[in-house]
Amino acid sequence: MLKNKLELIAETGNGQNQQSLLRKHYLDKLTPTERKLENNAVGEYLSEHLTLAGLEWKAYKTIFWLIIISIVAAPITLVLTKSIIFSILVPFITVLSFTFWLKYKAEKRLCLFEEQFVEALDVMKRALLVGYPFTEVMKTVSQEMPAPISVEFGKTFSELNYGVDIKVALANLAQRNPSISVLAFNSAVIIQKETGGNLAETLENLSEVIRGRFRLLRKVRSLSAEGRMSAWILMCVPFVLVIMIYLSTPDYLDPLFESDRGANLLMITGVCMILGMIWIRKILRIEV
C-alpha cells in the first residue's frame, strides 16, 4: 500500500530522469574505478538501504568489508567448533546479521525522524505565515532542525533547486523515509499546489493529527509491554539453562558441543530460535 502510494505521488512525465539527479551528482564525485563498482544493481540497492539507515558508507566498500569479515571468521569458526558446516554458514550468518542490523538502524532512524517531523511542521507553519515560499521553507527546516530531518529536507531542497518536479521531490522524501506522516504531508502540499488554499492552516491540523497518533502509539506500546517482556524471557531461558548446567556439571554438555549430532542439533535450535523471535516480533508489532 505504501509503495503504491509513493508511485501515485511520483507519477509524472519525466520522473525517472529527475529522480536520479542526486544519484548522478553523487556518482560524479567518485573516481572512475569507484563509479564502476558503485553504479550497478547491487550497489544501488545497498546504497538505498544504507541511506535509509542514515549511514554515509559507500556500497562497494561495505561489500568488501563483509567479504573480509567472512573470510577471517570462517577459519576461526572451523578451529573453535571443528565443524565444516558452521564454517560454511559463516558468510550467510554475516550477511544476515548485517541485514538485521541495517534494518534496526533504519527503523531507529525513522522513529527519530517522525518525532522531529511534528516540530518541523510547526517550523514550516511559522515560516509560511511570515511569507516564505515553499522552497525557502524547506531550507529553513534543513538549517534549524537537527539530523536526520535536517539532512532529508536539505536533500529535498537541493532537488527542488536542481529543477525536479515537486511531486517527484516529495516522493523521493517519502521513499527515503517511508512514513504515513510524510505521505500525509505530501498529499497536503500537492493538493494545495494544484487547488490552492491555506497551507499553513493545513500543516497545523496535520501536526495535531500526528501528535494524536503518537499518543495512541505510546498507549499501544505500554499495553503490549508485557508481551515483549515475555518474548525476551523465552529467548533468554535456554541460554540461562545452559550456563547453569555447565557450572554445575560441565561434563554433562560435552556430547552436545563435541559430537557432530550435537553440532547439528545446536544449528537447528539456533535457526528455530531466530524464526521464533521474528514471528513473536511480527505478532507484537502493531501498526498505528
TrEMBL record:
Transmembrane segment boundaries: 59-78, 84-102, 229-249, 261-280
Assigned keywords, A-Z: Cell membrane, Membrane, Transmembrane, Transmembrane helix
Top-rank taxon, per record: Bacteria
Name of the gene: TADB
Name used for this protein in its record: Hypothetical Flp pilus assembly protein TadB
Keyword Coiled coil: no
Protein location: Cell membrane
InterPro entries xrefs: T2SS_GspF_dom
Gene Ontology terms: cellular component: plasma membrane
Major location (coarse): membrane
Domain Type II secretion system protein GspF, chain residue ranges per copy: 121-246
Membrane topology designation: Multi-pass membrane protein
